[in-house]
Amino acid sequence: MTHSSAAFPSQFGPFSGQIGGMGKTHSALAGLRPRAAFAAVLLAASAGPALAHPHVFAEARLDVAVNPDGTVRSLRHLWRFDDLFSSTVLMEFDRNSDLKLDDSELETVSQTIFTSLAEYGYFQLVTAGGKDVAMKPPARLMANFQDNQLVVLFESEPKTPLKLAGKVDFGVYDPTFYTAIDFTDDANMAVDHLPKGCTRKVVRPDPDEALAQNQSTLTEAFFNDPTGTDMSKIFATRLELTCGKG
Fold first, then answer.
1. pTM of the shown model
2. How far apart are CA 164 and CA 66, in angstroms?
């Protein structure tokens, strides 16, 4: 479940990551590596209801790139993690104890996150007409430290062409509830070349309303152990695009 950044004002530095041009961002993010730290997060999340609330916090940006024919080319993700988790990653992966992560250490972090998140679809939520859209795994994942914070960047594509027609939603959520990924500003969910006739809206579900609206589909298992289900997506902030049938 995402949380307002206002509730955690001291955990994050200024969000300055921009993904409008992937080349510029890629050159700025020269590497990273969270292996044990991220694996520990996912393992801890499996401990059950006692951990069914966020322990790790990240500010995010999502850019949806659209082809000239109105199909989605890719989703570009940037996550900036809180100071506490970032320092944990630094301690876990600083093999030579020089209080920084060199290129090889950053590469280990990147590969660890890449492997750890594969089971969870890289925390992506994509639906078209209310149905889940399959996404290809990202070709790679990059990580870096900026202002003492862990930054993760990756890009993914739909497995089959995804036409912007009707209602298409994009979001990011952790099905284990362990990581809160927050879009602190609506502008951090953006569209590159939104087709004419399409509208864009950022949807931030109210938790109580989300529970009420999905009461019929929620099971006892969700309330006993929400980390064991995939229903946490009902709380995810979403970028909702509504277009003509095309």
1. 0.76
2. 9
